[in-house]
Amino acid sequence: MPKFIEVKTILNKTRRRDPWFLDEYTINPYSACSFNCLFCYIRGSKYGTHMENSLSIKTNAVELLKKQLTLRAKKNQYGIIVISSATDPYLKIEAEQKLTRGLLEVILEHQFPVHMITRSNLITRDIDLLQEINNEAILPDDLKGKLKGGTIISFSFSTLKDDVANIFEPGATPPSVRLKAMSEIKTSGLTTGVSLMPLLPYISDTSEQLDLFFSTFKQIGVDYILPATLALYGTNRADSKPLVMWAIKKHYPHLVEKYQKFFSTSDEMPLYYRRAFDKKMEALSREYTLRNTIVSLNKL
């Protein structure tokens, strides 16, 4: 059962704008996550020790955000708010709690732009608010004219296969359902893209799977794709490295040796893999004329 907690702050200011997600602020309505993605980068940190077992609802989040955004707005400190950076804003309990929706109402009131990152289809419930934010938000001066509006939606995928997702993202909305939600969001006129993070070596990073990703997303008409390689952290049972290795041994025993070699001395994939990965993503972006950045920096 989730816990109900009160927090001292809900709006976090980043040191600088993230070049990938454009966040200058972050909000996490919940603490921990019921999606239980085995590869989650939060595992191995103090924030992800127990994941679903430590799921908490920040009961005073809306009240706090009103105070914090009021101060930021008075100082004209507008910037993109990312929801969420350490958990999904549309966990299953959000359907009942409506905490994320309450935060969006406050964000709309104070005219801040927002970037939602999710593995859930529940986001379609809030299309009305997200469209209003898109129209009313005040963008930072250097992003005016570079974004279509004040709302950005990123759907996260590690695979398009429901059976594979059931192994590595057991609590998240199946990819097939996620795709339908993404199509609905895109049709609503909002800037819509893909956080292709992380791709799973020899499982979802094959040429066949990459072509399936890009052709599927191209057909939907997404605005961008942000790809990233797998990184695994920690050594305790609940950390991402042991959990992913357990899944590989159980479901992909023929890949055990390869994964052990990849992560025996580092948390990241080897440099040669990452360089080849970047070249492949650049080539696919050109082939499918899909940006690999949210803001268009160069013509493909």
Strands, helices and their partners?
Blueprint: E1 3-5, E2 11-13, E3 25-27, E4 30-31, E5 56-58, H1 61-74, E6 81-83, H2 94-97, H3 99-109, E7 114-118, H4 127-136, E8 151-156, H5 162-168, H6 175-187, E9 191-196, H7 207-220, E10 224-227, H8 240-251, H9 256-263, H10 271-287
Parallel strand pairs: 1-5, 3-6, 6-7, 7-8, 8-9, 9-10
Antiparallel strand pairs: 2-3, 4-5
Note the total helix count.
Answer: 10
Task: Classify the helix fraction into a percent range.
Answer: 25-40%
Number of strands: 10
Mean of residue pLDDT? 94
Q: How much strand content do the residues show?
A: 5-15%
Using only C-alpha atoms, the radius of gyration works out to: 19 Å
Largest sheet: 7 strands, mixed
Oligomer: single chain
Runs with pLDDT <50, length 5+?
46-50
Topology order in helix (H) and strand (E) letters: EEEEEHEHHEHEHHEHEHHH
C-alpha termini separation: 48 Å
**Estimated structural class:** alpha/beta
Q: Identify the strand order in the major beta sheet.
A: 2-3-6-7-8-9-10
Assign an overall shape.
globular
